[in-house]
Design a protein that fits this description.
CATH superfamily of the largest domain: DNA methylase specificity domains
Helix content: 25-40%
Structural class: alpha+beta
Shape: elongated
Oligomer: single chain
CATH architecture of the largest domain: Alpha-Beta Complex
CATH class of the largest domain: Alpha Beta
Number of strands: 24
Distance between the termini: 16 Å
CATH topology of the largest domain: Adenine-n6-DNA-methyltransferase TaqI, Chain A, domain 2
Number of domains: 2
Length: 403
């Protein structure tokens, strides 16, 4: 029996498979923004009442973004439950006895399939969509089911390690954010029992004696003016490098010498997105991927927040607080179809400024969490590179399994 044969993808998958979801019932929901390129599983599942429309899926289905630029960015995810998602997903399901769900997911990651789907795109500029037949008619070498399962299990191990690291990153950030809330919102910092509370004469009410309420511009350097040496090779960090939910900056998507314009920043700075929908989606980054004294460039839509009176990680966590972000969103104004936070917000927003003892103690405690986050992210980059090198070789048979 031949273990590999040339087949069209449509021969081994069901597309837009039937799922019996009841109208008016709440199900897990996958929004497009919760699909992160290079990560197998959704960042999170939302919940939404099913009204009859949406891409319906079951555990083991692969969701494939069909719209620009999500398709080009390879927003592809693997469902782990029954639910529905954005109408901009194709849904593919393995056929029982013919194909393996894990193998189908990794097969659909092939660059050639993505390019074929991109070529098929039609529609209005900026809202083009792929033709599903471009994927279904794509032909490649496909192994028998037993080999598919072996290949899927090998590649799954890499994604399992990446997902575990991602969970640890989320937990470490949550610990740091909870510590911030406990110390600087609830004022339950070490030794608080011995500190008198005084009236701040602001929305913050009573605050510890020795602490102050000050405009952000007095305690944070906003868009600091760093100088670049003309001869230096410059790292450029575009908006897509920023995470919606963590401090991590995806250095896989950075590039050098592309542009020396835009905002400039160094390690310890926070990159805060000022434009819709990036701000609402949570795009914020903590810079710790540069060399010592290195200056990098980035999107003109960043506001760079740099240490002055407040410390670096404190600033990053402050920028992720609900009050800070919601207040920033309320100041947004429209310019050429895109809303941006008014510059005056960063000058006038008032924040509680702890004394130096609390600030230094906090920074010392949370810096070890952010160092671990950095190391976990580096590990994920390595695992991703190995997986991405193996995937096309294994799923198409260019690299054979050893007996």
């Amino acid at each position: 029996m031949t273990q590999w044969s040339r087949k069209a993808i449509g021969e081994i998958v069901e597309h837009t498979p039937e799922n019996k979801l009841l109208k008016g019932i709440t199900y897990p929901y996958i929004a497009m923004e919760n699909v992160i390129p290079q990560f197998k599983y959704p960042k999170q599942y939302g919940s939404k009442i099913f009204s009859g429309s949406g891409a319906k899926f079951s555990a083991g289905d692969t969701l494939y973004a069909r719209i620009t630029p999500c398709l080009q960015n390879k927003k592809i995810t693997y469902a782990t439950c029954l639910g529905f998602g954005s109408t901009e997903f194709f849904v593919f399901r393995a056929i029982n006895g013919i194909s393996d769900p894990e193998y189908i997911y990794y097969l659909l990651l092939l660059d050639d399939i993505n390019k074929t789907a991109e070529i098929s795109m039609t529609g209005a500029s900026g809202r083009q969509r792929a033709d599903i037949n471009s994927i279904l008619e794509y032909t490649t070498n496909i192994p028998i089911l037993s080999i598919q399962k072996q290949l899927g299990s090998i590649l799954y191990l890499y994604d399992s390690l990446i997902e575990n690291n991602q969970k640890r990153i989320r937990i470490l950030e949550e610990i740091a954010q909870q510590l911030y809330t406990e110390w600087f919102v609830k004022f339950n910092f070490p030794g608080h029992e011995k500190v008198k509370m005084i009236d701040s004469r602001s929305k913050y009410g009573l605050i510890p004696a020795g602490w102050e309420v000050k405009p952000l511009s007095q305690v944070v350097n906003i868009n600091p003016q760093y100088k670049l040496e003309i001869s230096n090779s410059v790292l450029h960090i575009p908006m897509e490098c920023l995470s919606n939910s963590s401090s991590v900056i995806d250095s896989n998507k950075t590039f050098r010498n592309a542009s020396r314009s835009g905002t400039k920043f160094m390690n310890g700075d926070t990159l805060f997105s000022r434009i819709t929908p990036c701000l609402q989606n949570g795009k914020t980054g903590y810079v710790n991927i540069l060399n010592e004294n290195e200056v990098a460039c980035g999107s003109t839509e960043y506001v760079v927040l740099s240490p002055k009176k407040l410390t670096s990680i404190y600033i990053y966590i402050l920028s992720r607080t609900r009050n800070f972000r919601e207040t920033a969103i309320l100041t947004m104004v429209r310019a050429s179809g895109r809303q941006r936070v008014r510059p005056e917000f960063f000058e006038s927003y008032k924040t509680v400024v702890p004394d130096n003892i609390a600030l230094i103690d906090f920074e010392k405690r949370v810096s070890k969490y952010f160092l671990e986050i950095k190391l976990l992210h580096r590990s994920n980059l390595t695992l991703s590179k190995i997986r991405d090198l193996l995937t096309p070789q294994l799923v198409t048979g260019r690299r054979k399994l050893k007996s």
